[in-house]
Amino acid sequence: MANLSEEQQDIALKAIASTLGRPVSEIETLLTGDKPSEVDKMVSDRIKSVREEGTKSGKGMLQKAANAKAKELFKIDADPDKIEELLDVISKTYKPEIKPEDLTEEQVKMHPTFRSLETQLQNKDKEFQTTLTQKEQEWNAKVSEQQVKAMALKALNDFGAVIHEDAKIAAVQERMFLERFQGVTLKEVDGKTEFWKEGKRIEDSKLFPVAADDFLKGMVESVYTIKVSDQKEGAGVPPGSGSGGGGGKFTFTHFKGTPPKTLEEVNSILRDRNKYSYAERDEVTKYWAEQQKPA
Fold this sequence. Notes:
The protein has four domains: 6-91; 100-132; 140-221, no CATH class; 228-295, no CATH class. By secondary structure, the protein is mainly α. It contains ten helices and three strands; from the N terminus they run H-H-H-H-H-H-H-E-E-E-H-H-H. The chain has a three-stranded antiparallel beta sheet with strand order 1-2-3. The protein has helices spanning 6-20, 24-32, 37-74, 83-93, 105-110, 112-158, 167-179, 212-221, 263-271, 278-291, and strands spanning 184-189, 192-197, 200-201. Mean pLDDT is 76; it is low at 230-247.
């Protein structure tokens, strides 16, 4: 203890003496004598003894608890000192009130173990059904998505979408077009196909399910210009004037340019989305269709 102050040495001596249950003077004599290592051995033995006493005490408490529970469950009047002895007593003396072979189905179902297993099975079944339903929904959504995509691409041809000559621009147009169908699903109701999105049915202005042709044509027109049929030269009429080839008078509201006289002029206007608004292009389309009517 040469490196400790006198106060620290005094505290250490008192702690050792208290642990060993010996007088401070005795510990001091042993430490300053010929065999100071005896103090170290005494401390080690004491620590070991305390541990053994704690373990024994803990086991004793567990044994008492086990014995008490055995009396409660199996009506055993015995206080063995070891768990092994307790199990032996139970196996030799416990006689169930009802033999297993004599149990009725209702008694088995009322047993806590059966109920626990039944609950576990029910929970597992619910988990399975939930997973199965989720996978079915994912698969149906994927199938529906492919169906919608096929209908959308077919609609481009059915409704005469004008595909841009530049392949890159055409690809961008197609991507923009298909993006408008994201989230759209199909449902068969009373033998008719309905379009749904975000859990709501897509309806017309009268709140009826929108017709497939109307829905698809509207989607095509929202991105593409639509081809119109050809007509004879000179069939056009000036804005606000009378008929040209028999289509009757047509008044332009939005379109302020020169009315087209040929199909080429019509398609040129329809392709120029930067110069002409949707309302103007739509008006030109209706005008051209009007000119195709017989006189």
